Amino acid sequence: MVLKGKSLSIASFRPGKRAGHGSALAAGLAAALAATTAEGHHGWSWAEGEQSELVGVIETVSMAPPHPALKVRAGDGVVWQVDLGNPRQTERSGFGAESARAGDEVIVLGNRSLDAGEARMKAVRITVGGENYDMYPERIRAD
Q1: Positive or negative, the Cα torsion across 84, 87, 93, 99?
Q2: Average pLDDT, consecutive stretches of 10 residues, N- to C-terminus, the chain (143 residues)
């Protein structure tokens, strides 16, 4: 396993054995690794620094953890994965399961994936039916 560039071995962790000092340490390291992995996946490091706008039609709305998300078909036919804020941020924005449905037009302001071949964006703001839902208001850049 790799944690911030360093290799870790948790060979001393043996499920089913009585938890001792070594097992507790190994379990703690495993938990730290899981948290770091989740943070990397859910952070912003995978996205461009520049914000882009995507206009399209919602195909699906998912409020399932870890992040609510939309599938959005752009004008060119490409279907984008649009990750919203974490569940609490999404709720604070005012966006809920009934805020949008398949067929609604949406404008997404957000950060595209660094991988140009991946149709994925992390939303900062979405606009549906003229209503703005600010997932990350502190990240919205005024032009």
Answers
A1: positive
A2: 34 37 44 40 79 97 94 98 94 96 98 94 97 94 69
Cβ-contact 108, 120 below 8 angstroms: no
Compute how many other C-beta atoms are within 10 angstroms of the C-beta atom of residue 19: 11
Diameter of the chain measured on Cα atoms: 60
pLDDT at 42: 57
Q: Residue type for 75, please?
A: G
The four Cα atoms 50, 55, 60, 64 give a dihedral, to 10 degrees, of 30
Using DSSP's 3-state secondary structure scheme, residue 29 falls into helix
Look at residue 138 and give its three-state secondary structure.
Answer: helix
Contact 121, 82 (CB under 8 A): yes
CATH classification (class only), 47-139: mainly beta
Rounded CA gap, 105 and 40, in Å?
Answer: 31
Q: What is the pLDDT of residue 143?
A: 57
State the pLDDT at residue 9: 32
Integer Cα distance of 83 and 68 in angstroms: 6
